[in-house]
Amino acid sequence: MTNSRTTSRSALAAAGVSVALWASAFVSIRSAGAAYSPGALALGRLVAGSLVLVLVLLVRREGLPSRGAWPGILVSGLLWFGGYMVALNWGEQEVDAGTAAMVVNIGPLLIALLGARFLGEKLPPRLIAGMGVSFAGAVAVGLSMSGKGHASVLGVVLCLIAAVAYASGVVAQKPALAHATALQVTTFGCLIGTVVCLPFSWQLIGELGEAPVSATLNMVYLGVFPTALAFTTWAYALARTTAGRMGATTYAVPALVVVMAWALLGELPGLLTLAGGVLCLAGVAVSRSRPKTADAAPAVEVTGTVDAPGAVDTVEPASSATPVGDESGKGAAGSAR
Fold it and tell me: CA–CA separation, 110 vs 118, rounded Å?
């Protein structure tokens, strides 16, 4: 049980690192996105991330993943690393940030549904309830950010495509982690995403010379931390829990974005924004909580003598019940598998 608790805590810590870094990405994208076009920004971010990941992979001498991991790596690389980043960057130029946040935040719901359909994962009531609360919070944050912004049909469609690509990529990545390490899955997924974005090379080269240093540094930051590090810690956590629970965890991102924008950009959040952030965090807590252990059946007490193995004279119910393990005896590991 100690090992299970340790595994659960390490997975939760890894997921926390991913969520925090992805929240910080929204702040960096504001700077980099003003100087780089969607495709160029996605390619630059993926190139920076790939360089770091390949270097770490070589140092650790992990080599190529096994054959069984490649289908999931290919799909996640195409959809999540490649398609998601381009669609989201493009969509955020067509709609205001609030609308983009609301549409993209259907992603965790899609992850839970796709995980149930293709991975056979269960949909416990607490997970569904928690995701519903978090989604309401994400909508509140989105509405508070929208102001008098604009929302084109193209932008909404692009954000919807980003959400579907993200959810599909996560569900495809889960089986691959049974055949390869988190570092291998992330590294080769990122490389595939980089190849997908190569058609934007000419844009990146042309914009590098004109972009301010701060925008380029933010693009590099996006590649090293929210991509290379955050995607690796995500894969590590995903290998130890269900896709649905991991998806629900990402609902903490809007709340963290509010805090970071307040601390780093001096953007004082309004009451609706704060309320939405609280709902997001409350929903994550509900989705990751577990029902209290049911009352255990009475134990029995041996009152006779045992002369030989298996030869028990008589047994009587104990005067007071003592708790026995339940079917969730994995302890704090809970959803860790």
Answer: 12
Query: Which of 106, 82, 111, 336 is CA-nearest to residue 192?
Result: 82
Rounded CA gap, 182 and 162, in Å?
23
Under 8 Å between Cβ of 27 and 264: yes
Please calculate the CA angle 73-235-76 and round it to the nearest 5 degrees: 25
Question: What pTM does this model have?
Answer: 0.78
Quick one: tokens of 38? Answer: 């969607």
CA distance 226 to 81: 12
- Inform me whether the pLDDT recorded for 120 exceeds 50: yes
Q: Is 151 helix (H, G, I), strand (E, B) or coil?
A: strand
3-class SS of residue 334: coil
The CA R_g of the chain, rounded to the nearest whole Å, is 23
Helix (H, G, I), strand (E, B) or coil at 210: coil
Q: Which residue has the tokens 């995403």?
A: 193
Q: Which of 80-94, 232-246, 269-283 has the highest mean pLDDT?
A: 232-246
What is the DSSP code string of 259-318? HHHHHHH-----HHHHHHHHHHHHHHHHHH--PPPPPPPPPEEE-S-BSSTT-B--EEE-
Asked if 231 contacts 189 with a C-beta cutoff of 8 angstroms, the reply is yes
Of the chain, the percentage scoring pLDDT greater than 70 comes to 81
Q: Which three-class secondary structure state does DSSP give residue 152?
A: coil
Rounded CA-CA distance 49/51 in Å is 6
Q: Which of 119, 113, 97 is nearest to 238 (CA)?
A: 119
Residue of 323, 329, 126, 73 lying closest to 242 (CA atoms) = 126
Three-state SS letters, 117-147: HHCCCCCCHHHHHHHHHHHHHHHHHHHHHHC
68: tokens are: 């069984």
- Contact between 101 and 142 (Cβ < 8 Å): yes
| Spatial separation of the C-alpha atoms in residues 165 and 310, rounded to whole Å | 59
